[in-house]
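Support case: acetoacetyl-coenzyme A complex. Customer-provided input:
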Amino acid sequence: MAYIISEEAKDLLEDVKEFCENEVKEQCKEYDVSGEWPKEIYDKAIEMQLHSLEVPEEYGGPGLDRVSVAALIEQMAIADAGFATTISASGLGMKPVLIAGSEELKKKACNLIVDGGFGAFCLTEPMAGSDAGAGKTTAVKDGDSYVLNGRKCFITNGAVASFYCVTAMTDKSQGTKGISMFFVEAGTPGLSTGNHENKMGIRTSNTCDVVFEDCRIPAENLIGQEGKGFKIAMQTLDQARTWMGCVATGIAQRGINEAIAYGKERIQFGKPIIKNQALQFKIADMEIKTETARQMVAHALTKMDMGLPYAKESAIAKCYASDIAMEVSSEAIQMFGGYGYSREYPVEKLLRDAKIFQIFEGTNEIQRIVIANNVIGR
Ligand code: CAA
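Agent response - structure generated as follows:
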């Protein structure tokens, strides 16, 4: 793997590799069929503190640089992209607080994660997908509280989160400048979940609606200031998209691993099929794409770590990695021939898992808008 990582992370990477190879990979194969959320695997991940890799050191996290974390997340994705998505989406859920929250909220969110919880990010609504500013959820100030009403959909970790960062309209007359961001703890009266998605891929991650019905939260749970919620959401996504690129890269890497292993073992015309230069070239192309995606992820994360602008690089990493994850998975299936199309073999799952990475955290069409805005200017 081409990430250049710290010595500390190298030791952890060995542990993660062992856990992912021996437990996550095999067990998730079954959970992919049942669609059940594999609690015991997540419990083990929590025990190993793999769910809190993105928590900053001052709030109890491991204090790793982002590229080292990417190496660990990719390893998880090689085993199962749904598993890596749960972990990464928890980081997404925490980001609005880290970007703009008060010190108290930062401590609260990070403690909830370190103690074994997950975060969830609630932006999308039935009528506000790509048009993220069109949400109808409202938050009305009432004394020392805000009262939230509305329905969020396609929320990763929706039913398993300990807290939610939620966008809601506080002033309808102001458009996107009337949107605010709130921190809501699980168990708050008026907060419920519904409509669990029966997904095509990443079936070991939980995705559902999150519903707010007269959900009263303390006024201090406002993240940042009123009217800044859309900007905070965009800044959150600017960071989070690289991580989706990282998970997509892991899917592609698994495709390469499986294709090489099968190519060495499958005999046709009296020799292993990998001896054919046509298939060696295929593997080389898969490697060129996957390594390029990984370098884009590493570049965006390095810029983040250095405090340099990264929005364009993050969108490129997510967009490119998800596109090549589709291509590489498809080529892996092709290498397996008819067996590749069978659910008994591991590669058809990769294509199913890969598809969502072209869609969530902003479709790849939206990524191109973000990239164009960065290059051309608004
Ligand atoms: N950083 C800071 N501010 C930003 C920004 C950014 N990256 N992008 C926009 N803004 C600001 C703009 O500057 C503007 O403010 P001003 O008027 O003061 O200049 C304001 O926000 C509105 O910007 P736009 O006019 O560009 O907004 P828009 O309504 O045209 O939408 C968009 C822009 C980029 C298309 C946005 O709607 C978008 O990102 N859509 C995709 C949504 C998305 O990614 N959803 C994913 C949901 S999360 C998910 O999938 C979760 C999961 O569980 C896995």
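Residues 130 and 366 are 7 Å apart (CA to CA).

Case will auto-close in a few days if no follow-up is received.
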